[in-house]
Amino acid sequence: MQGRRRHVIVDCLGLLLVVVVTAANVQDRDGARPALERLHDWYEKITLIWADGGYAGRLVAWAKEKPQLTLEIVKRNDDVSGFVVLPRRWVVERSLSWIFQCRRARAHASLAGRTG
User: Fold this and answer.
1) Could you tell me the pTM of the whole model?
2) Above 90 in pLDDT, residue 73?
3) What's the longest Cα–Cα distance across the chain?
C-alpha cells in the first residue's frame, strides 16, 4: 500500500512535540503507541493527552498502564450535524495546516525554478 500517515503530538500552542510517520495502512491506535512512548521518554512531566475518536478503545487502557499517560478522547456531539470545531482538536489541525502549507510552498518554489 502506498502513502504515509503522520501521528502528531503537539502542545497546547500547537508546537510539535512528537511525529511518527507510518505506512498509510497502519491504524491510528497502532501508530499512536510509539508516539506516546516517545512523548513519555522525552517529556516526562506531560501526563494528559487529548485525542480524537480514532484513538479510542484499548489504547486508552494501554496508555494509562504502560507509559502512565491519561488519554482523554475528545468526542463529537451526536446532536450536531455538519462541521463542528471540536475542543482541543483544532490545535492539531492548525499545526498540520502549517506543516503542509510550508511543504507546498517549498514544492512550488522548486517547480518554478525548473520551468524557466
Assistant:
1) 0.74
2) no
3) 58
